[in-house]
Specification:
about 325 residues, mainly alpha, 10 helices, about 0% strand
Amino acid sequence: MSGYDHELSRLQQEIIEKKRADAKLSDLLIQQSELKKRVYELERQKMDEQKDVDQLQSRSLKAFFYRITGKMGEKLTKEQTEAYAAALRYDAAEGELRAVNKDIEDCKKTINDLRWCQQEYEKAFEKKLAQIKASGSEAAQKILQLEHQDGILKGQKKEVEEAIRAGGTAQVIAGRIIENLNSAKSWSTVDLIGGGILADIAKYDKLDNVQENVKQLQNALRNFRTELADVKEEIAADIHPEVGDFLHFADYFFDGLFVDWTVRNKIEDSLSRANETYAQIQNVMGRLNLLNSQITARQEQVQAERTQIVASTKIEEN
């Protein structure tokens, strides 16, 4: 590869990387705006729920009423559970916002570092084009076109493969959630027929795992959405609603159902939602894998065509 070829290839990859960063940044800014509102709302809810707990623990008339009616323990436990769930929802959203803010800074740095790549590419391209025109070789011009196509395909393949990796991570975590919910459902059945404290311990252990995995899955789904931001145009147009649904997954677990999921039918509801999310991920992954195969086939076609041109071109020797 000549110096011109090497420089053009490098700059072409930088242009692709900058476009990817631009697309990611655009989507991340939307996420940031949504999350800021969400964090603000959840912080208010958390504070309101905690105020209810504090009021019941004070010397207010309301607290006095619950004490004398013997309902203090029941009421306080309910309020404490709701306060705990509100705090979890806030922590999850606030953690997402921190991650998004970091990703935004990373994208901005990449864009800034590559801000001149397009201009540099155009200059290098014009120099190489002038050299080819001077040679008068049609084969050389065709090879340049094919190398340009190959560079674009490499960029597309990188985008798709990164989305596949992100989706694979989300799929694995979703599978863990389904596994633990199925186990919790089984122990809940045992509990209904008198399983005792051991059944309770096993059930809560599985639900603790689910609680942690839901946080991990939410972040994985957010990352999956970000990686899809610059490839979704190449896939079916209906991918965007599915990606939008991803962002509501944690809310479903941490809003109401979380408080009541010791009830067997609530575990079943959560399991149904987890299976639905897994299926959505699987559907998108199927289209990504198909697109990746198509890009690979096109790359092989370009390489074969270039090889054929090089092999069939005769060079006059002095």
